[in-house]
Amino acid sequence: MYRICVLKHVMPRRILFTLYRLKSNVRSASVVGMVGVCVLLSSCSTQSLITLAMADALASQTQSGEEDLQLAREASAFYLKLSESVLEQRPAHTALATSVSSGFTQYAYAFVAFEAEKLETYDVKAAQQQRQRAARLYDRAKQHGLRALTLQQPGLLEALASDRAVPLRNEQVGLAYWTAAAWAASISLSKDQPERVADLPQVFRLAQAAYVLAPSHDEGALATLLGTLEASRPGGSSEKAADYFARSIQAGSGRSAGVFVSQAEALALPAGDRSRFEALLQRALQVAQTHRNLSNEVMRERAQWLLQTIDDRF
């Protein structure tokens, strides 16, 4: 059986870069303007064109250098809801589906699931409520991703459940990555539901199929995901997992704090290696300090918390 406690950390590689996308600039204004136009126009063909333009605009919002997590949290809700509403009209739009799936996954990880872990020691009921909310958000992300993928590749689910080759194209790698990450994270919070845990081999196959096409995807994010899954799956190899993590570090030139946090939790913690666990987390703190961005800020907070509670783990 998978070590479920590990799987909740499958997406820390570049978490939250995309959450702070709607800026106070001309591009944001144009998006809001298009929303108003959609309400005013009644022509189906015109609405279709406008919806497509909105989907393109929302999906192309640039990454932000914002470092304030609270500001990112406040800004992300509007972006996610607006993007999701447009995606409902364009469910097969690869770029927007990727953006929505990644956004909900990252929001759940950084702002909901992590809070549940911290609450666990003094408010079990509140922690459970937060875990349930995180699971729902992960499911939402997974459903958007799978819907887009299966609309584009009708035989995808059947292939994932069998030994057949998984049909995936290069432009779908990002969507597959976030779908797999959300799927695994959802399962990790549903360990009392064996039927959901049974889906984990499909998650692994989806991530592997994406990795074959783009092993360096997102500066090693996909390799980090596979390293965590490999370390956690039945019969998984810690050596193979370590190799995935090494490839991730190489692909990202060591600029991600998340890969070191992932190694600490996926490899050092299960092995009972306290000194390595601590060294990896200290490395994560160093990287986060040197390379300042939202992703590393999230990982900095997690690394600090893990170090503060290290006596509870060993």
Describe the protein.
This protein has 314 residues and is mainly α. The protein has a single domain (4-23, 61-312), classed as TRAP transporter T-component (Serine Threonine Protein Phosphatase 5, Tetratricopeptide repeat, Alpha Horseshoe). The protein is 71% helix and 0% strand. It has 15 helices and no strands. Helix 3 packs antiparallel against helix 4. The model is unreliable at 1-6 and 12-42 (pLDDT under 50).
Explain the layout of strands and helices.
Layout: H1 4-7, H2 26-40, H3 44-59, H4 69-89, H5 94-119, H6 124-152, H7 156-160, H8 173-188, H9 194-197, H10 200-213, H11 217-232, H12 238-251, H13 258-268, H14 274-290, H15 294-308
Helix pairs in contact: 2-3, 3-4, 3-5, 4-5, 5-6, 5-8, 6-8, 8-10, 8-11, 10-11, 11-12, 11-13, 12-13, 13-14, 14-15
Query: Uncertain regions: pLDDT < 50 for 5+ in a row?
Result: 1-6, 12-42
| Shape designation | globular
Global mean pLDDT: 85
What proportion strand? under 5%
Assembly annotation: single chain
CATH architecture: Alpha Horseshoe
In short:
The chain is mainly alpha-helical and 314 residues long. It has 15 helices and no strands.
What are the main properties of this structure?
Serine Threonine Protein Phosphatase 5, Tetratricopeptide repeat; disordered N terminus
